[in-house]
């Protein structure tokens, strides 16, 4: 009797389990997804990745923060540094317009001072410089002294036979028995005479300046806002007006001559 009751109980329990199993269904409940902040991708398990996940576009990056129009005030004890000044690379208008000239040569101190006084109100800078003279007024061509008068006369005959004239035998003094072959007003003319005589075989012929060297000349260098012409130089007593590099004119204001 007890065994029969146990069998009936087991059948009832098995039937109940079978009914419960059929009633629950195959799909498990899907948990609701939690909303994520923008730009944050949902974490997926390896088994969850599928075609839909691969086709999903990448998250859109958040836009960069926009700077505020007004800068926040500096903290206490700190002062904002002022903006650095921008250097103006353009030249000063006066310096860009300057034109420089050399007026001269002046050999007379009075004419030089008068030209300075006339130029002083017209120019921005004025400087007087001295230029030593490199030219001589007269040049002579000559042959050194010979052993005696007879030797000098024999040499003169050779010179005449070579087609040259304008000779003179010095009779006395330190240069006695030397032969003068001409006096010339420029070095170029004297050098040409010397070259011709040497080409004819008179290799000892010399050319040299005579007399004292001319005095040094002076020039007025100016930096002017207006151009100067040759006529302006002549009016001031200067024989020439030559363009000049402004770097050669000292950066000092023009001063009146005394």
CATH class of the domain at 93-132 and 215-248: Alpha Beta
Read across the widest sheet, the strand sequence of neighbours is 2-7-1-8
Q: What would you call the shape?
A: elongated
Rg (C-alpha, Å):
57 Å
Instruction: Note the beta-strand portion.
Output: 15-25%
Secondary-structure element series: HHHEHEEHEEHEEHE
Query: How many strands?
Result: 8
Helix-residue proportion: 25-40%
**Uncertain residue segments:** 87-93
Question: What kind of sheet is the major sheet?
Answer: 4 strands, antiparallel
Helix tally?
7
Distance between the terminal alpha carbons, to the nearest Å? 159 Å
Protein name: SPOR domain-containing protein
Pfam families: SPOR (PF05036)
Biased composition (Pro residues): 56-66
Domain SPOR: 90-172
Structural write-up:
The chain has 258 residues and is an alpha+beta fold. Among the domains are: 93-132 and 215-248, 2-Layer Sandwich (Alpha-Beta Plaits), CATH 3.30.70; 138-210, Alpha-Beta Plaits, CATH 3.30.70.1070. It has seven helices and eight strands; from the N terminus they run H-H-H-E-H-E-E-H-E-E-H-E-E-H-E. The protein is elongated, with a radius of gyration of 57 Å. Residues 56-66 have a biased composition (Pro residues). Residues 90-172 form the SPOR domain. This is SPOR domain-containing protein. Residues 67-90 have a biased composition (Low complexity).
């Amino acid at each position: 009797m007890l065994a029969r009751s146990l069998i009936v109980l087991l059948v009832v329990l098995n039937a109940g389990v079978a009914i419960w199993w059929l009633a629950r269904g195959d799909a498990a409940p899907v948990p609701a997804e939690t909303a994520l902040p923008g730009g944050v991708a949902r974490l997926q398990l390896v088994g969850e990745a599928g075609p839909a996940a691969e086709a999903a576009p990448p998250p859109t990056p958040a836009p960069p923060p926009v700077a505020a129009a007004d800068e926040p005030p500096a903290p206490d004890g700190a002062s904002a540094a002022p903006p650095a000044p921008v250097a103006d690379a353009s030249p000063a208008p006066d310096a860009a317009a300057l034109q420089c000239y050399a007026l001269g040569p002046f050999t007379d101190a009075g004419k030089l001072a008068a030209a300075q006084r006339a130029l002083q109100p017209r120019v921005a800078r004025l400087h007087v410089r001295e230029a030593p003279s490199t030219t001589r007024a007269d040049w002579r061509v000559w042959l050194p002294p010979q052993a005696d008068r007879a030797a000098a006369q024999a040499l003169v005959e050779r010179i005449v036979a070579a087609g040259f004239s304008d000779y003179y035998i010095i009779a006395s003094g330190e240069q006695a028995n030397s032969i003068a072959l001409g006096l010339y007003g420029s070095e170029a003319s004297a050098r040409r005479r010397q070259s011709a005589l040497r080409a004819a075989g008179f290799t000892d012929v010399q050319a040299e300046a005579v007399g004292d060297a001319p005095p040094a000349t002076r020039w007025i260098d100016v930096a002017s806002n207006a151009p100067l012409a040759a006529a302006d130089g002549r009016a001031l007593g200067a024989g020439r007006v030559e363009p000049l590099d402004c770097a050669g004119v000292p950066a000092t204001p023009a001063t009146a001559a005394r």
